[in-house]
Amino acid sequence: MEKGWLAVLVPLAALVRMMPAADNVLRVDYCVIGGGPAGLQMGHLLAEAGRHYVVIEKSNISGSFFARYPRHRRLISINKRSTGKRNREFNFRHDWNSLLSKDPRLVFSSYSQELFPQAQQMVQYLNEFQRLLHIRVRFNTLVTQIRRQHETKTFLISTNRDFSLQCRWVIVATGLWLPNVPTFPGSQLLEMYDQVSVNPKEFHGQRVLILGRGNSAFETANNIYGETALVHMVSRSRARLAWSTHYVGDLRAVNNDLLDTYQLKSLDGLLEADVRGMTLRRSRGGKLRVRFNSSLDLELASDADSFALRDAYDRVIACLGFKFDDSIFHRSTRPARCRLASKYPAVKSNYESENVAGLFFAGTLAHSLDFRRSAGGFIHGFRYTVQALHRLLERKNHGVAWASRSLPLRHLVNTLLVRVNQAAATYQMFGQLADVYLIRNNNKSEFMLVPEFPAALVGRLDELAGHSGAGGSVLVSLLEYGADFSGPAKDTFRPDRATGDPQEAHRSNFLHPVLYFYRQPPTETDLLKDDHGTHLLPRPDKTHHVLEDFLTQWTAPTAHVLPLRRFLQSCLGRDLSSGSARGDCFVSHLESKTDLPACFLDSK
Ligand SMILES: *[C@@H]1O[C@H](CO)[C@@H](O)[C@H](O)[C@H]1NC(C)=O
Ligand SMILES: *[C@@H]1O[C@H](CO)[C@@H](O)[C@H](O)[C@H]1NC(C)=O
Ligand SMILES: *[C@@H]1O[C@H](CO)[C@@H](O)[C@H](O)[C@H]1NC(C)=O
To answer: Name one GO biological process term (predicted).
Structure first.
C-alpha cells in the first residue's frame, strides 16, 4: 500500500519541478527586458528609487548588440573628451555615449580616447556600468513569451530558465535587432549586412552593389571601396546627410566617403530605385545580374541599352536596417506598430504601448515619438527619455512628484540663462524635452522649475508631474532649429543661414532657445499649428526666440539677455531687472565645476 503511494508521488514531484509556473514564479514590480544601454539606464534609476525590479538579458553580457554591431566596429557617436569647460552637465551636451549616474568613474571618455570610439569600448563601459552600480540583471535569460493577464492586470513572462516572472509593469528595451530582409525574385542571392565579411581583402577587384542608404550601408561601402573595382548603392530615397537634416541617424560625414568618389566620377555611384521592384539572377558566368520591373527613371529602365546597372556584379549586399522584434509577445499582448515608421512599436507620449496598458518602451524602441526629428533613437537622447519615463512611472505608480526646484521670482531670468546654456537633456532632446516654469500668481515671489518634461505632455503637467500651475502662468523653454532649415535638400551652408540681429531672432536657424508663454496652464486641446502640421505644444499666448549663437553661448548682454528679460517682464507685468546677473557671470560659470553660479544666487 505505502509502496503504491510512493510510486505515484515521485513522478508527480518530478513533474512539478519541471513546471516552473506552479511555484517558481518570481513576483516583481518592474520587469525590464533587455540589458543594453536603455535597460541599464532604467535599471539604475529604478534601483536608485528603491523599486523592486529586475533586468532580463538574453546574453551573458550587457550591451551584447555592441559586441556584434556596427559590423565594422566604429561607433559614430561623438566622444568629445575636451570642451574647454569643467562643468559636467554642460559637457554632457557633447558626450554621446555615457549613461546618467552620479558615479564620476562612469564617464565614457575614461573608456576611450577616440572621437569615434570602438564598439568594444561601449561593451566594456556598459558592463562596468552594470557592475559598479550593482544593477540587478538576470543574464543568460531568454524571454520566450510575454502575456498580459487581464484578471490580475499583470504580465506573465516565460523564460528559457527554470523560472517565470509575474510583473506589474513591463519595460521593453530590446532595441532593434531584426534585420530588414527584402523579398524579391532572386533575393536569396543577397548577402546580408549582419553576415557579410568585414575583411576588405575579400572584396579585391570586385564589383559590389549595396542596397540601402543608411549608415550601415555607407559603413559597409567605406570599409571596402579601397579594394573593390567599384561600389554602387541603390535605395528608394535620396541620401539624407545628417548635416543638412540635423538628424544624427542620417548619413554621417564619418561614413560618407562614397559621395566623393561618386561625384568625382571615380567609378562608384548612387542611384534611386525601389528595391521591391528588383530582380536578381545568377548568370552562367556566376555573376549577379540586376533588373527592375519598371521605372520612371530612364537611367534605371532595364530594357534601355544604357541601363545604369547593366554590368553584372560579383556581390550584392543588403544593408536595409533593423526592426523591432515582437515575436516574444503572445498574440493577445502584441503591441501595435507605429503607422508612420513601422519598424517601431506605436507608443503614446508617455512611452506606453498604444494598445497594451502597463507595457512601456525605453530607448530606441520609443523613437517613433521623435523619429527623424531629435535624438531619442540614440544613447545621448534616450538616456533622458528613459529618465522621463522613470519620472512618469514614479508619479503614476508611487505618487512621487517630478523633480522640481522652487526659487524666488527675481532669479527667473538667471535660472533660464543657466538652463539654456548648460542643461544637456533639453539640448540633446531638442524640440522634445522642455523646461517648464510655473509662475504662481497667488504668490508673486516664487516660481517652480519642472525640468526636462516631455513637451507633448505639457497640457497634463498637473496629473503627470504632480505640480499644479493652477492660478498662475506657465513658461515652456525648448531648444529648436529654425522651422524650415532641416531637410535632405536644404542648403545649410547658404550665406544667410544665420542671423546676428536680435530684431530677427525669430528667424534663427541653428539650435536656439524658444520660449512659449501661457497666461493660464495650457490644456491638450488647442495644439499649436506649424509648418509640419501640428506642433507638440498647445498654442501659446506669446513666443520669444533667443537669438541663435555661433558659440551656443546665450549670454550676450544686449543680444540675448536684455530681449529675454523684456519678454519675461512683458509676460509677467513685473520688473525683473533687480535679480539679473551679467552675462559674463555665466560664461565664467561654465568653466567651473559647481552646479549653480554664485553670481546667480547672490544677486539681489
Ligand atoms: C560570454 O559567452 C561567450 C560565448 O558565447 C564567451 O566567449 C564569453 O567569454 C562569455 N563572456 C562572459 C563575460 O562570460
Ligand atoms: C514593381 O516595383 C514596385 C516598386 O518599385 C513594386 O511596388 C511593385 O509591386 C512591383 N511590381 C511587380 C509586378 O513586381
Ligand atoms: C509664498 O512663498 C513664500 C516663499 O517661498 C512662502 O514662504 C509662502 O508660504 C508662500 N505663500 C503662499 C500663500 O503660498
So the answer is: ERAD pathway
